[in-house]
Amino acid sequence: MKIQKKEIRRIEQSRKARARKILELIQSAVHNTTALGTIRKASNSDPFRILVSTILSARTRDSVTERVSNRLFEKYSDPDSLANADPEKLALDIRPVSFYHQKEQSIIGASKQLIEKHGGKVPNNYPELLERPGVGIKTAGCVLVYGFG
């Protein structure tokens, strides 16, 4: 009887270990094959960079999102620099993405609100994220998964 219980326990632990490994592989595949996954890895899961990159990513190819995000963060490194950015210059900087004029307004507006209401920090919950310009359910979800997850 004791041998059976030990064997059952060993099998259960082995199954749990395999399940954890499978979950890790799935998470790695999802996080590393998208533009946001690449940006997450490069920015050490910086929620602000994830937020801005997700706003840029709407209706834009991953390769373009990644390229524009990297170039953008070389010039504007934090909410303050984007909040004070010249709108025309920012629009030119992000021009390769779709709807760049709208996204420029959303990025500047969201950056200003982050400074005014959250001390420059990205909130880690849906309700507060959804209050930001240009942030809908998908963007909020991406920020929570890639920036805080």
Structure notes:
With 149 residues, the chain is mainly alpha-helical. It has a single domain (34-148), classed as Orthogonal Bundle (Endonuclease III, domain 1). It is built from nine helices and no strands. It has helices spanning 2-32, 35-42, 47-57, 62-75, 79-83, 87-93, 100-118, 126-130, 137-148. α6 (87-93) packs across α7 (100-118). The longest helix is centred in the first third of the chain and has 31 residues, at 2-32. It is elongated, with a radius of gyration of 20 Å. The mean pLDDT is 90.
Question: Outline of this structure?
Answer:
This protein is mostly helical and 149 residues long. It has helices spanning 2-32, 35-42, 47-57, 62-75, 79-83, 87-93, 100-118, 126-130, 137-148.
Labels describing this entry:
149 residues, Endonuclease III, domain 1, mainly alpha, 9 helices, single chain, elongated
End-to-end distance: 43 Å
CATH topology-level name: Endonuclease III, domain 1
Shape: elongated
CATH class: Mainly Alpha
Order of helices and strands: HHHHHHHHH
The CATH superfamily is Hypothetical protein, domain 2
User: What structural class do helix, strand and pairing data support?
Assistant: mainly alpha
Total strands: the figure is 0
Number of domains: 1
Q: Largest sheet, described in full?
A: none
Q: What share of the residues does DSSP label as strand, in percent?
A: under 5%
Cα gyration radius (Å): 20 Å
**Number of H- or I-type helical stretches:** 9
What is the level-2 CATH architecture name? Orthogonal Bundle
> Which regions have little confidence, pLDDT < 50, spanning 5+ residues?
none
Q: Roughly what percent helix?
A: over 70%
The chain-level mean pLDDT equals: 90
